[in-house]
Amino acid sequence: MLPVLVVHGGAGHIPKERSEKSTAGVCSAVRAGYAILQGGGSSMDAVVEAVSELENNPSFNAGCGSVLNVKGEVEMDAIVMDGKTLGSGAVSAVRCIANPVQLARLVMDKTSHACLTAEGATQFASAMGVPTVPQESLITEYSRIEVTEIHEAGRTVFTKEGKMGTVGAVAVDSDGNIACATSTGGMLNKMEGRVGDTPCIGCGGYADNKIGAVSTTGHGEAIMKVTLARLILFHMEQGQSVEAASDLGLAYMKSRVDGLGGVVTVDPQGHWAARFSSPQMSWGAAQKDTLHYGLYTGEHFTQRIDLPH
């Protein structure tokens, strides 16, 4: 059953003209991360590689392609967590970093802190030799159009629907070590300085070798209210399967705070699930040299991982 990697490209409503790119992007990220696991690499290396691929893909709301805040600027959040040590690293409201997930990993590996924010995170990046990039390089024409349409319609922010394309991954490597990573541009037209669930431990992600790992996507404020990632792992501690636990957590978020979202989940044995309460979630998984992927509820395609998508 091991190694295994599961990736999501965000929950919400994905316009038809973008759905193919979303599925292809997730499958590409799965291949990149799984290649590391096949080579004997760690689950942490694999999830960071997969999420970095998605950050670099303008089809997703993370890194290049991040949604714009009310001032038309990009502010990004990311987290990583190591299930062996419960070590974690996160960054929030960072602006000119191409791969926030890699900076989050440096926070975990190189500091005694769990989260650095905004200007402090940028200063840390500089100290670590991580180059800054022009903000313009992270902004796509699609993101500009999205925020313009909202302003013209006199609306505020997308909440239950719209582009919530947070990206994330969970993995178990051949040594049985578990990791998660999540990265996002946040909520379209959000207030400046708004930080959602993604960089908050237990909300945007959680990993524990004894239980499993979860990476979440969806309406950030709702996810924070129910600490969705840790809630699902609690259900797994109580003996629920990865699928049942994921569904229980998502159902509670829907009934208690009317929040929609999605998750990818693994357990130490290599069982995995990709579950969502939103209309769609692009997801992909790799196990036993097989690629699994889907977008709509009930959709589950498989093919050999070495075949082109």
From TrEMBL:
GO terms for molecular function: asparaginase activity; beta-aspartyl-peptidase activity. The keyword ATP-binding does not apply. The keyword Hydrolase applies. Gene3D superfamilies: (Glycosyl)asparaginase (3.60.20.30). Substrate binds at residues 194-197, 217-220. One of its GO terms (biological process) is proteolysis. It is an enzyme of class 3 (hydrolase). Keywords: Autocatalytic cleavage, Hydrolase, Protease. Its EC number is 3.4.19.5, 3.5.1.1. GO terms for cellular component: cytoplasm. It catalyses: Cleavage of a beta-linked Asp residue from the N-terminus of a polypeptide; L-asparagine + H2O = L-aspartate + NH4(+). The record marks 165-166 as: Cleavage. The active site is at residue 166. Belongs to the Ntn-hydrolase family. PANTHER family: ISOASPARTYL PEPTIDASE_L-ASPARAGINASE, L-ASPARAGINASE. This is Isoaspartyl peptidase/L-asparaginase. It comes from Seriola lalandi dorsalis.
